[in-house]
Design brief:
Layout lengths: L8 E4 L3 H12 L4 E4 L7 H6 L2 E2 L3 H6 L3 E4 L4 H8 L10 E5 L4 H13 L3 E7 L12 E6 L1 H11 L5 E4 L6 H10 L2 H17 L8 H24 L9 H18 L7 H15 L7 H5 L8
Parallel strand pairs: 1-2, 1-4, 2-3, 4-5, 5-6, 7-8
Antiparallel strand pairs: 6-7
Length: 297
């Protein structure tokens, strides 16, 4: 099917991201069938040219390529279970959250029902689906990815195959996604502190963006340090972060903003210093984050 821009596709799950996926397929001219537990969500897509399947079995049977966008791997299997027999000979692409273990379990489940599987992740918000720079990555059988790569690229121009192991997309999804909540809560803490002075939060957005740009520029440096295990060239040391922790307490007292969410991070920095990494690069925190295989933790 490579090179065929009219590949028939089914989208299962019509939340905000699922709707965006279906809209992208329809806009690109792919015959698109949709299904959701709540049928009413299909209406706007039908108006755009999608077909609404009456049942999950009809939805799966309608296309050789079935794309699911549900919350977890468990939700995906539960939704598809009534249509399991219809999966035989089809390609299933899962775009949901979940652990590598969940991906492996789903790969075994799909294989047992005769389906080929690609697990994947959309690394952006629904509004960005279809944009040339929107990142999606997949893992699983490379031949399957290559067969449908052109079709999947409709969802985002930065489309990557990570490898043959079916759990790699889930691994990278969690590894990269781990940065999101701490970064957002940091921004929200700053927002509360700025508001405590009677200032507008939008006044700090440009500066926060510059700060994130700086962090982005440091990631290759830290990655090289971690890969090599050499933390001796410390532009920002563990001790520097340790000394800065007291400022968070000062901020909390002055602005009445709760900074206790930082306590585990401060503890991590302290443990790194106690482990002998005080003068090392802050990337040495990675060594403290690793659990000993004999620790039982």
């Amino acid at each position: 099917m490579a090179g065929d821009n009219r590949t028939s596709v089914t989208v299962v799950g019509l939340g905000s991201m699922g709707r965006a996926l279906a809209e992208a397929f329809v806009a690109a001219g792919h015959p698109t069938t949709v299904w959701n537990r709540t049928p009413g969500r299909a209406g706007p897509l039908v108006d755009q040219g999608a077909l609404h399947a009456a049942s999950i079995t009809d939805a799966v049977a309608a296309s050789g390529l079935v794309v699911t966008c549900l919350t977890t791997f468990e939700d995906t299997r539960a939704a598809l279970e009534p249509a399991a027999r219809a999966l035989r000979g089809r390609t299933l692409v899962t775009l949901n959250s979940g652990s590598p273990a969940g991906a492996r379990e789903t790969a075994a489940w799909a294989g047992a029902h005769g389906a080929r599987l690609l697990t994947g992740a959309v690394k952006n918000v629904p509004a960005a689906v279809g944009a040339p720079d929107t990142l999606l990555y997949y893992s699983g059988d490379r031949a399957v990815f290559e067969e449908y790569e052109e079709t999947l690229r409709v969802l985002g121009g930065d489309t990557v195959h990570l490898g043959e192991e079916p759990d790699l997309a889930a691994l990278y999804e969690m590894a990269v996604g781990a940065m999101l909540l701490p970064a957002l809560v940091g921004f929200f803490q700053g927002a509360a502190a700025v508001q405590a002075r009677g200032l507008r939060v939008d006044s700090m957005v440009r500066f926060a963006g510059k700060w994130l740009d700086m962090i982005k520029a440091l990631l290759p440096v830290y990655a090289a340090e971690i890969d090599s295990g050499d933390y001796s060239d410390a532009a920002s040391s563990v001790n520097l972060f340790l000394a800065a922790a007291v400022h968070d307490d000062d901020l909390s007292e002055e602005t009445n903003v709760d900074t206790t969410w930082l306590a585990p991070l401060h503890d991590l920095v302290r443990r790194a210093a106690e482990a002998g990494h005080g003068e090392h690069s802050v990337s040495a925190l990675t060594e403290v984050l690793r659990k000993s295989p004999h620790s039982g933790a």
